[in-house]
């Protein structure tokens, strides 16, 4: 599995917990150099220290993906530190469920800013480097909710459908530059997502779903590793997976 991963420079947003944190560890073990980004400085610095202490190479960059300048700075710092950018993993996301009638407008706007604009900012920051290199790989995180619409998660589902649309457009546009693109759509995977909602009843419902179904975050890390590890002429465009016992 370390084939085609070793030595690659991978930028990971949302790396302070869950899927991003597990992926940073997994890819580092396979020989990748990782730039880990999130708003929680202490967490990503601890993760980077752990990776470096274990013989890997990691850089922590405090980043709010809703701020385009910060995402540009993240990618610039990774390129300055490691010399290039091979993979951009746009992983940061929020999932505050609530019925539309509750008018959680601030949460809608935050989801759009993180789940959609954050992905676009990551693409915009990485593309100039990858275009110049004539190589690279952009991985965007959608969800089962990017394939199905469910009540109480309407806006979340909309953002994850948007990620898939953006990713497919990207796939077609970057062919002249030898850039690969992948959408990964997980089901219930152990993370902090169930805690996103400010509505107690919604939070409890989602937490119960995850407690009954969620699989470890390293399942996502292995999916990322699989996509990256393919030969350069192989472009894995989409991975959709769920816990075996998840019906939704």
Structural overview:
The structure is a single chain. The chain has 248 residues and is α/β, with parallel strands linked by helices. It has a single domain (9-239), classed as Rossmann fold, CATH 3.40.50. 46% of the residues lie in helices and 15% in strands. The protein contains 7 helices and 7 strands. It has helices spanning 18-29, 41-53, 68-82, 105-133, 154-173, 200-213, 218-229, and strands at residues 9-12, 33-38, 57-62, 87-90, 136-141, 179-186, 238-241. It has a 7-stranded parallel β-sheet, sandwiched between helices. Helix 1 packs across helix 7 (218-229), helix 3 runs parallel beside helix 4 and helix 4 packs parallel to helix 5. The model has no long low-confidence stretch (mean pLDDT 95).
Annotation keywords:
46% helix; globular; 248 residues; 7-stranded parallel β-sheet; Rossmann fold; alpha/beta
What is the topology?
Elements: E1 9-12, H1 18-29, E2 33-38, H2 41-53, E3 57-62, H3 68-82, E4 87-90, H4 105-133, E5 136-141, H5 154-173, E6 179-186, H6 200-213, H7 218-229, E7 238-241
Parallel strand pairs: 1-2, 1-4, 2-3, 4-5, 5-6, 6-7
CATH topology: Rossmann fold
CATH class: Alpha Beta
- Relevant CATH superfamily: NAD(P)-binding Rossmann-like Domain
Helix and strand content put the structural class at alpha/beta
Count, helices: 7
Helix-strand string: EHEHEHEHEHEHHE
Give a summary of the structure in a few sentences.
This protein has 248 residues and is α/β, with parallel strands linked by helices. It contains 7 helices and 7 strands; from the N terminus they run E-H-E-H-E-H-E-H-E-H-E-H-H-E.
């Amino acid at each position: 599995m370390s084939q085609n991963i070793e030595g690659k420079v991978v930028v990971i947003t949302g790396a302070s917990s869950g899927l991003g944190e597990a992926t940073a560890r997994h890819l580092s073990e396979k020989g990748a150099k990782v730039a880990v980004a999130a708003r929680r400085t202490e967490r990503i610095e601890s993760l980077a220290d752990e990776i470096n202490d274990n013989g890997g190479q990691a850089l922590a960059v405090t980043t709010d993906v809703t701020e385009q300048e910060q995402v540009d700075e993240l990618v610039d710092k990774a390129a300055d530190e490691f010399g290039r950018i091979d993979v951009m993993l746009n992983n940061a996301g929020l999932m505050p469920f609530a019925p539309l009638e509750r008018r959680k407008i601030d949460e809608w706007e935050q989801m759009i800013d993180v789940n959609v604009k954050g992905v676009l900012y990551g693409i915009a920051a990485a593309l100039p480097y990858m275009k110049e290199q004539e190589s690279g790989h952009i991985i965007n995180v959608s969800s089962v909710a990017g394939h199905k619409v469910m009540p109480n998660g309407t806006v979340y589902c909309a953002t994850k459908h948007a990620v898939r649309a953006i990713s497919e457009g990207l796939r077609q546009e970057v062919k002249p530059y030898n850039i690969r693109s992948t959408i990964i759509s997980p089901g219930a995977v152990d993370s902090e997502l169930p805690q996103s909602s400010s509505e107690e009843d919604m939070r409890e419902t989602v937490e119960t779903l995850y407690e009954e179904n969620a699989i470890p975050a390293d399942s996502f890390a292995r999916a990322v590793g699989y996509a990256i590890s393919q030969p350069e002429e192989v472009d894995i465009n989409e991975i959709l997976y769920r816990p075996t016992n998840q019906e939704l």
